[in-house]
Specification:
The chain is an alpha/beta fold. It has helices at residues 5-12, 31-38, 71-78, 91-95, 140-151; strands at residues 18-21, 46-53, 57-64, 83-85, 113-115, 125-131, 134-138, 155-156.
Length: 157
């Protein structure tokens, strides 16, 4: 199995996880496509979005694959008046990842990250390991614990 920086963090913290792989379609990097190829429920396949707040700067949000980010809600809970998605060309320089492979773990900097509360109703969620075609299956409470241990700046929506 391939390892990524995100999986190495989980190893270091002794947090159990499973690596899931799927064949990448460069023309469809959607969570819907990833969920289908892995045979996993879309509501448990989370995507990581990178956002810029007018007061706090860069932050991230992990939301279910079929959901849309509510920018007004995120602005409110993150202490911003306004938030907006970053430009695609900024993803790699800000996170170290490329589109379709952004993980909430092991970004270049420990940005505040907000996980949609729906994650905590499941025994596991799946999110990018930081490489296209590679996903991590983790208990959402363990993901929260890992993020708190590495950054100390995590909030849950």
């Amino acid at each position: 199995m391939k390892k990524s920086n995100a999986s190495r963090i989980l190893d270091k913290l002794k947090i159990p996880y499973e690596i899931l792989e799927y064949e990448v379609d460069e023309t469809d990097l959607s969570a819907e496509n990833a969920a289908q190829k892995m045979g996993q429920p879309l509501k448990q396949v989370f995507k990581t979005l990178v956002i810029r707040g007018d007061k706090t700067g860069i932050l991230a949000a992990c939301i279910p694959g079929g959901a849309e980010l509510n920018l007004k809600t995120l602005a409110s809970i993150s202490g911003n008046k306004k938030v907006e998605m970053i430009h695609l060309k900024e993803i790699k320089s800000l996170t170290g990842y490329i589109r379709g492979g952004v993980s909430p773990l092991a970004m270049k900097k420990n940005y505040p990250t907000y996980i949609d509360e729906s994650a905590f109703q499941f025994p596991y969620i799946i999110f990018s390991a930081g490489v296209r075609g590679l996903q991590l299956k983790v208990d959402p409470d363990d993901l929260l614990k890992a993020m708190q241990l590495i950054s100390g700046k995590l909030a849950v929506k």
